[in-house]
Amino acid sequence: MVIGENMNVSNAYMNKLAIDSLSISENDCVLELGMGNGKFVSDILNKHESVKYIGRDFSDVMVAEAKKINAEWVKGGRAKFYEGVADTLSWDTKTFSKILTVNTIYFWQKPEIELREIKRVLTDDGLFVIGIRPKDIMLKLPFTQYGFKLYSEGELKNLLTKNGFSIVSTHLEQEPPFEVNGQEIELESLISVCSKQH
Ligand SMILES: C[S@@+](CC[C@H](N)C(=O)[O-])C[C@H]1O[C@@H](n2cnc3c(N)ncnc32)[C@H](O)[C@@H]1O
Fold first, then answer.
1. pTM
2. CB of 25 within 8 A of CB of 58?
């Protein structure tokens, strides 16, 4: 699937950063919101044999593709994929020790709703990692004018702290050069690692 594959090439670097920031450890139960085609699920599950993963995405095409790419993990009972939006999560309170979402918040029209749900299903000592490209970088890309909600580092921090999260660490990193329409574009990944405010 071309859309999924293009997303993977440009997003591999930031997904790796975000996954490393999750500090995956034994028995972690990981939820990813908007995993796309799930190309990076192995990078999570290979961190420890006891880790379990659930991915949720509102695109049926992406869910089908993720199930196909991760068929072995699904068969082995370590990965599950569900179709659905991120603003109503159908899991019990404090189900997940780690929650991840990369390049998705731009599509959340009222992100406080998604953040409330994320906080609800995260364990008290769990970590929530969010990865985005900051506003100044996104504005250089040709497609971001179409309804994307963009955040600078400060705006993301405000959003998270206003909605019940404490920032554990923030990483702003330059990505390897990337070409769009024959033009080289400088990309940056912004990764925020958060815990619940108690
Ligand atoms: C730009 S892609 C990013 C995919 C992957 N996380 C990555 O970084 O390569 C955004 C994904 O989030 C999904 N998505 C966007 N908004 C969503 C929402 N509100 N609920 C669930 N999935 C959503 C889209 O279907 C798409 O697969």
1. 0.94
2. no
pLDDT digits over 79-100, tens only? 999 999 988 999 999 999 999 9
| SS3 at position 27 | coil
Residue nearest atom 25 of ligand 1, based on CA coordinates: 59
15 C-beta closer than 6 A to ligand 1: yes
Query: How do beta strands 79-83 and 52-57 pair?
Result: parallel
User: Which residue has 């709703």 as its token pair?
Assistant: 113
Q: Would you list the DSSP string of 69-115?
A: HTHHHHHTTSEEEEE--SSS--S-TT-EEEEEEES-GGG-SSHHHHH
Q: Is the CB of 138 under 6 A from ligand 1?
A: no
47 Cα: distance to centroid of ligand 1 (angstroms): 23
Check residue 179 and report its DSSP letter. E
Domains of the chain: 2-196 (3.40.50.150)
